[in-house]
Specification:
Number of strands: 23
Largest sheet: 8 strands, mixed
Helix content: 25-40%
Strand content: 15-25%
Distance between the termini: 58 Å
Structural class: alpha+beta
Shape: globular
Mean pLDDT: 84
């Protein structure tokens, strides 16, 4: 053991010599190619699409500056991307500090651009560090920039990670202005995939159009010239239309979109909001078009304002009595869909990910703008104000009832649950990183799972039937549901806004259901609950979906497990042509004994599991609203649209 540790130490130890010869200087864009993850997060699919966002952001910055009205993004044959805009055009004159044309400087020098301090080309910008264009260039096999400016058309081409292949030259005359950028991602960097997803680009550009009212954004997919895809997004109403779009699958309580807008100290704030008859809160914030999904001072200012205004209005109009407690922030946000967008000349973000705004002055600015204009709206629209107050007071009553239910739930300790027949069978390990909780459909499968599991690290919680659809239920009903109470107690960490992911008892929560329609329904019900009440569990990647086999094929006393029809056909092709194969199709987990369930679905060395991830909270909200919400029409439209793609129909 000691010898092994010494070997590891030797491998990890750096050379004793550490002189000036050990210092590496990466010239130009070499640093980006050496550590691409530092600049775009990952070289997997999200990083590939990040290249598009960087170039589009530059075009949108021109729109924010007041010069660009149309942005077009095209996926070309061969998965190259072209982004064009009708802005001012990247300057083509010589930059004194570099001795190179400005367009070459922007695309080859890190931290070079028009977004720095006094005299910069932009007052407000999504990209702050001047690395976007040069990073895309560094990570591309080739990149071309065509600029229409000063009466001419100028072109420059880069190859092999940002090296100038054809210097800037004037190739013609132009009456208009703008920039056209075309690039091909480098397959040696993006080894997982270099294929762009039209839907991913389309959805992101739709969001950009909502946040920049008046800008027309066109997205095209020309990879199949016989079936060219195209969408155009143009919203004069901006964030008001965004709220309307987000509430499309809900039932709004009133037609008006409440809109607040103002500017203070050069900071522009826009807020649009509308209540619906649901129970979820869908509040999204942005700074300079960047989704600050961790919130920040603009969200804090918004929350302070609406809570203050609604409480004051409720007391002034006797909806609250003198001895009643104030309505809480959770009360006023129930059923609220809102977009908060600020444009800041010098935003400061907490952390490296630009997901939480930290400027303290923004809190007061947003609070003042929203507070004054929202209060005026309530005063001028008493009928709508009554609808809002009735909704919020109902939420308050439900919260108090849920609190009582929660307290009753908390009185049951996990040990109490473990002692109940058919309930939680815990594991002996005390390390959450090693512990796994299998949520199993049905007592029969639960029994097999309990007998076949690794008792040290695997806990089993059988479900009796389907849990409540929390998308359509008030909190009191949610906590009256015994199965949900058992999950809350078993997982630990609490629920809702107070959920603390650091206190959970398992770092793998595995949904294990039958491979049929009922199993799929239970799975989506559980995912809906986790997403709405334990979102950090999903965000941190602690939720998994077990993949039990669909078939067991037996040939000459040897068992083969197949997880889909394709695998079964491959197995048949590998066995002798006239082989007598006994094929068993599993209708449910309960048909497997404990050994089979362990070997196929629970053994860490052999099992297959899908990890549930959350890439886009806004898109996830829309999907959950559509599939699990009150309205039937959106679901019917979804089924009609996607029915032709169904491969395995269980009827």
């Amino acid at each position: 053991m000691e010898d092994e540790e010494k070997k590891i130490e030797e491998l990890e130890r750096a050379p004793e010599e550490y002189t000036e010869k050990n210092i590496q200087v990466l010239e130009g864009l070499e640093a980006v190619r050496k550590r691409p993850g530092m600049y775009i997060g990952t070289t997997a699919e999200p990083g590939l699409h990040h290249l598009v966002w960087e170039i589009v952001d530059n075009a949108i910055d021109e729109a924010l500056a007041g010069y660009c009205t149309v942005v077009t993004v095209t996926i070309n044959k061969g998965d190259t991307i072209t982004v064009s805009d009708n802005g001012r055009g990247i300057p083509v004159g010589i930059v004194a500090k570099t001795g190179k044309p400005a367009v070459e400087t922007v695309y080859t020098v890190l931290h070079a651009g028009g977004k720095f301090g006094e005299g910069g080309g932009y007052k407000v910008s999504g990209g702050l560090h001047g690395v976007g264009a040069s990073v895309v260039n560094a990570l591309s096999e080739w990149l071309e920039v065509v600029v229409h400016k000063d009466g001419g058309i100028f072109k420059i081409r880069f190859e092999n990670g940002g090296h100038v292949a054809k210097p800037l030259e004037r190739i013609g005359d132009a009456q208009d202005t703008g920039t056209i950028v075309t690039f091909k991602p480098d397959a040696t960097i993006f080894q997982e995939t270099t294929i762009f997803k039209y839907e991913t680009i389309r959805d992101r550009l739709r969001q950009m159009a909502f946040l920049n009212k008046g800008v027309r954004i066109v997205v095209r997919d020309e990879r199949d010239l016989d079936n060219v895809l195209e969408d155009t997004f143009h919203y004069e109403g901006g964030v008001k239309e965004y709220v309307k779009y987000l509430n499309a699958n809900k039932t709004p309580l009133f037609e008006d979109i409440i809109y607040c807008e103002g500017i203070d100290s050069g900071i522009v704030a826009e807020v649009a909001m509308q209540y619906n008859d649901g129970y979820a809160s869908n509040v999204y914030s942005f700074c300079n078009n960047i989704n600050t999904h961790e919130g920040g001072t603009h969200e804090e200012g918004f929350r302070m304002a609406i809570t203050r205004v609604i409480n004051a209005y409720a007391r002034q109009n006797k909806y609250l009595k003198d001895n009643d407690d104030n309505l809480t922030n959770d009360d006023v946000r129930e059923g609220l869909t809102a977009i908060i967008s600020v444009k800041h000349p010098n935003p400061q973000y907490e952390g490296q990910t630009k997901t939480k705004l930290g400027n303290s002055e923004v809190r007061k600015i947003v609070s003042n703008i929203v507070g004054e204009q929202f209060n005026r709206f309530l005063m001028e629209n008493p009928k709508t104000a009554k609808i809002i107050i009735d909704k919020v007071v109902l939420a308050s009553n439900a919260r108090l009832a849920a609190k009582n239910a929660r307290e009753a739930t908390r009185k049951k300790s996990v040990l109490d649950i473990a002692s109940l027949p058919g309930k939680l069978a815990d594991c002996s390990s005390k390390d959450p990183e090693k512990r796994e909780l299998f949520i199993v459909e049905g007592n029969s499968a639960g029994g097999s799972a309990k007998n076949g599991r690794d008792r040290e690290t695997q806990a089993i919680l059988p479900l009796r039937g389907k849990i409540l659809n929390v998308e359509k239920a008030q909190q009191k009903r949610v906590f009256d549901n015994a199965e949900i109470g058992n999950m809350i107690n078993g997982i630990g960490g609490g629920y809702g806004p107070d959920f603390d992911v650091t206190k959970i008892r398992y770092h793998k929560v595995v949904i294990m259901t039958d491979a049929d329609v009922d199993g799929s329904h239970i799975r989506i019900l559980l995912l809906t609950f986790f997403y709405r009440y334990m979102r950090p569990l999903v965000e941190n990647g602690y939720v998994y979906i077990a993949q039990p086999p669909l078939y067991r094929a037996t040939y000459r006393s040897r068992h083969y497990y197949c997880y889909n029809d394709e695998q079964l056909e491959v197995l048949k092709s590998k066995l002798p042509a006239n082989a007598r194969i006994d094929i068993q199709r599993y209708k449910g987990l309960g048909e497997m004994d404990d050994t089979q369930l362990w070997e196929t679905t629970m053994d860490p060395s052999a099992r297959k599991m899908m990890r549930v991830t959350l890439d886009d909270a806004i898109e996830a909200d829309l999907i959950f609203d559509m599939l699990m919400g009150e309205r039937v029409e959106p679901r019917k439209e979804f089924i009609n649209k996607h029915a032709k793609f169904v491969k395995n129909l269980d009827i």
